[in-house]
Amino acid sequence: SEIAYFKFAEAMASMGHDVTLFSNFSAPGLFGMAKCSPYSEWESVYCKQSWDAACGWTMADPLFLASPGTFRFLNHQCNGFSTSPPGWEGHVDMIAPLSHTHARRIVHETGFPRDRWRVLYNGVDTVKFSPGVKVPGKIIWASSLDRGFHWMLSMFPALKRAVPNAELHVFYDFHSINHMAVEYVPGPAYITPVHLELGNRSRYIQIGRASCRE
Question: Which of 6-10, 14-18, 180-184 is modeled with the greatest confidence?
Answer without folding.
Answer: 14-18
